[in-house]
Amino acid sequence: MSARLVIARAGARSLLQDTGFRGGRGIGVPGAGALDRDALYLLNRLLGNDTDAAAIEIALVPPKLRAEDGPVRLALGPGLSGQVSGDNPRPVGAWTAFTLHPGETVDLRFEAGCPVALIGIGGEIDLAYALHSRSTLPRAGLGPFGRKLEDGDAIPISAPAADPGDRTFAAPPRPESGPLRAVPGPQAEWFTEASRETFFGAEYSVGIETDRMGMRLDGPALSHSERGADIVSDGIAPGAIQVPGSGQPIVLLADAQTTGGYPKIATVIGADLSRLARLAPGDRLRFTAVTVEQAEAAARDRRAELDQIAECVVRANAGRIDPRALWQANLVGGAVDALCPDHFPHHPEPESHP
Asked: 208-238, pLDDT tens digit by residue?
């Protein structure tokens, strides 16, 4: 059995993304992949996929999708909702897995302030891999389509996922707040002591010059030390915070180049990288310094938290009780009926009353 997910309306920037290209950095290929890795992991768990399966990452203007030739299982990430039209019209919300039957469409919309969101796709996508990935890097022409999705494109699905009805997490993740954690360096000595204190104490805002390569920040300018604003180009990873001669920090994201020649004052830790995907121009943020050991502990804690969320899936229909979900919950046991003799085998049957 096979199906196709047709892009009835592509929106502004819809891209297939998974966990990114592997083995390409040595030849200058960025990792790419989904900006919000936490959401990708949870959506794939919700759909019963491999956790590195591809999803559609959307931005600015959401798409409209249609199922053809067979049912297509989808799941919406945070900041996204939609309206299903067809034989079973209904609204669907964030963190909800649902099935589009052939001919049905879902018209998606962003919540206010949401810049980027993910749409999980259940089953096996029947498209070629490049560098062990189905991610898309448009500026290099890499990916199954080599570009953003366009009206009329179709994503073939060779093994559609099972349809257990609309499902969601019993306790979806809550929006995170507080400073972004960052490890100082690796070129902290390229900045004055006052600038290092400013970076970890001041408030910045997300600039309008933000895309999948990087996020420019507006705020107090940082001064370089006598070493200057240039270094011999070295390796760069997502989360690295470069500071060019202007003194305004740039947080590098998934599509960032593999090397760079600006000094890096700090690196956002892996456990907080997904938070960057949820920031829109004008949003405010702060940074706080942590050690490498604290960053590693935070990564372990974050994965444990995501696994705990993913392990409890319930029916999404509001106002309806799913008995299977109740059976899996920690309910009070040993309840008895005082008027039922079978519940008191060693006691006489209670007297009946008129």
From this structure: 999 999 999 999 999 999 999 999 999 999 9
H helices of 185-272, in order, are 193-199
pLDDT tens sequence across 64-105: 999 999 999 999 999 999 999 988 899 999 999 999 999 999
Based on the fold, state whether residues 163 and 221 are members of the same structural domain: no
The 8-class DSSP code of residue 331 comes to -
Give phi and psi for 308, each to the nearest 5. -65, -40
Comparing CA positions, the residue from 154, 139, 163, 164 lying closest to residue 56 is 154
Question: Closest Cα partner for 144 from 52, 15, 36?
Answer: 15
Same domain, 57 and 161: yes
Number of domains in the chain: 2
DSSP category for residue 160? P
What tokens appear for 206 in the block? Answer: 């997300």
Domain with 270 in it: 180-292
Task: Let me know whether 156 and 198 are in one domain.
Answer: no
CB neighbours of 225 closer than 8 A, spacing ≥ 6? 189, 190, 191, 192
Nearest to residue 207, comparing CAs of 196, 198, 216? Answer: 216
Residue 297 amino acid letter: A
Q: Is the pTM of this model over 0.85?
A: yes
Q: How far apart are CA 326 and CA 247, in angstroms?
A: 56
